[in-house]
Hints:
Blueprint: H1 2-7, E1 13-18, E2 21-23, E3 26-28, H2 30-41, E4 44-52, H3 59-69, E5 76-83
Antiparallel strand pairs: 1-5, 2-3, 4-5
Amino acid sequence: MERCWVAADEDAVFCIMSGDWRKNHVYYDLPYEIDRAFKDFGATVVDKVVVSRAKGSKIKIMLPQAKRLGYTVRVHEMLSVYRKPR
């Protein structure tokens, strides 16, 4: 992301779609990490949009695993919009 930030023109807009991630029972809060990175770059937050995937997700398949491992089923992603200042 940093290479894109450096290469972008002033006033450029970045739209990043992300969501929570789990791997090997470790939780990764990607929307938070992306937000932190863009704030470190000096970006201005333009908007945050929750994008539902409830209709396309296989909740019935995901639910037993979530119950067994003790976490919730997430059926949304976050669209974060940032602007590079002038």
